[in-house]
């Protein structure tokens, strides 16, 4: 797979059902254990906040969160492998945090696989700190994998 060279003009927009196929395509490319199409569809249907990073005509990444009682939960943040390591993950994370703050959330929680130090590093750089572990939280083929729980107060 070749990295893209034309960065166009990145913009961030709300995602809808029309984006489902592309989100699922990126999900399968970016994660060893991707969400199912049904999970993504449910997120779009039930009104979770779903934002997409668009570069030219290309949807390059997305973030998904839900929230209640002042707490936001970042459920997914993903950049297409062709567009990674160019600052777009940080850009989308920042935008997503701003949206969470606009919805009057005071705290953000997220889980990250212990095998994903790249993502943990992104979150730590933005000020998230590790507040716990959830044992065997994720499926990992035939096995289970622990999650690191991270928190940011905003
Ligand atoms: C995690 C992810 C969103 C980062 O997006 P990105 O656009 O590549 O990130 P950025 O270019 O903004 O990088 C920001 C920071 O993330 C960390 N990072 C990103 N990619 C990394 C890598 N391959 N190795 C080590 N650190 C990495 C670094 O701390 C980096 O800061 P630096 O450039 O100053 O070193 C992206 O790798 C991704 O979508 N991964 C697959 C899905 C995933 O794991 N999502 C997180 C689920 S919790």
Q: What does this molecule look like?
A:
This protein is an alpha+beta fold and 154 residues long. It is 29% helix and 40% strand. The chain has helices at 20-30, 37-46, 88-102, 117-125, and strands at 10-14, 49-55, 58-68, 71-79, 107-113, 129-140, 143-153. Strands 1-2-3-4-5-7-6 form a seven-stranded mixed beta sheet, with helices on both faces. Strand 3 (58-68) and strand 4 (71-79) form a beta hairpin. The radius of gyration is 15 Å and the shape is globular. The N and C termini lie far apart (37 Å). The model has no long low-confidence stretch (mean pLDDT 95). It binds coenzyme A. Residues 30-31, 77-79, 84-90, 112, 116, 118-119, 121-122, 125 line the site of coenzyme A (COA).
Summarize the model shown:
The protein is of the alpha+beta class and 154 residues long. It has helices at residues 20-30, 37-46, 88-102, 117-125; strands at 10-14, 49-55, 58-68, 71-79, 107-113, 129-140, 143-153.
Terminal residue distance: 37 Å
Strand content: 35-45%
Low-confidence parts? none
Output mean pLDDT: 95
- So what's the overall shape? globular
Strand numbers in spatial order across the main sheet: 1-2-3-4-5-7-6
Largest sheet: number of strands, sense, barrel closure? 7 strands, mixed
Over all CA atoms, what is the radius of gyration? 15 Å
Give a list of the ligands: coenzyme A
What structural class results from the helix and strand content?
A: alpha+beta
């Amino acid at each position: 797979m070749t990295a893209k060279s034309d960065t166009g003009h990145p913009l961030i927009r709300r995602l809808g059902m029309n984006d489902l196929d592309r989100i699922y395509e990126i999900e399968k490319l970016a994660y060893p254990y991707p969400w199912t199409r049904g999970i993504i569809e449910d997120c779009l249907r039930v009104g979770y906040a779903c934002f997409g990073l668009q570069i030219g005509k290309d949807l390059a990444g997305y973030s998904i969160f839900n929230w209640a009682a002042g707490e936001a939960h970042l459920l997914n943040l993903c950049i297409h492998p062709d567009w990674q390591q160019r600052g777009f993950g940080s850009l989308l994370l920042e935008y997503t945090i701003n949206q969470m703050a606009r919805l009057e959330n005071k705290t953000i929680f997220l889980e990250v696989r212990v095998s994903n130090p790249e993502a943990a590093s992104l979150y730590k750089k933005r000020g998230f700190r590790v507040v716990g572990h959830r044992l065997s939280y994720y499926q990992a083929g035939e096995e289970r994998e622990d999650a690191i729980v991270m928190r940011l107060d905003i």
